[in-house]
Design a protein that fits this description.
The chain has 92 residues and is an alpha+beta fold. The chain has helices at residues 14-25, 30-37, 59-67; strands spanning 4-11, 48-52, 74-79, 82-91. The chain has one domain (4-91): Chitinase A, domain 3, CATH 3.10.50.40.
Length: 92
């Protein structure tokens, strides 16, 4: 079964996600922004989701984690929880 390591930032609005993504594009630290802005409990760990396997997360996030390029910020991605910015930093 494939696994990946990912981190994310979850916010309530698309505009907030787009603003944070612009800050990331300018070189701000993902972990610091996650700690400050993410509404997910993983925000306390800099957004780190740890090892992820298929079936553990909502479909829109899983699709990014297992099908999109690594080491890039993807999003905003809408789910029933809000808007996510996702980075995959390892995938086997």
């Amino acid at each position: 079964m494939p696994t990946a390591m990912a981190k994310h930032i979850l916010v309530k609005t698309k505009q907030e996600a787009e603003d944070i993504k612009q800050r990331l594009d300018r070189g701000e630290d993902f972990a610091k922004l996650a700690k400050k802005h993410s509404t997910c409990p993983s925000g306390k760990k800099g957004g780190d989701l740890g090892e992820v396997r298929p079936g553990q997360l909502v479909k829109p996030i899983e699709t990014v984690i297992f099908k999109k390029a690594t080491h890039q910020v993807h999003g905003p991605i809408k789910s029933q929880f809000g808007f996510h910015l996702v980075v995959v930093y390892f995938r086997d």
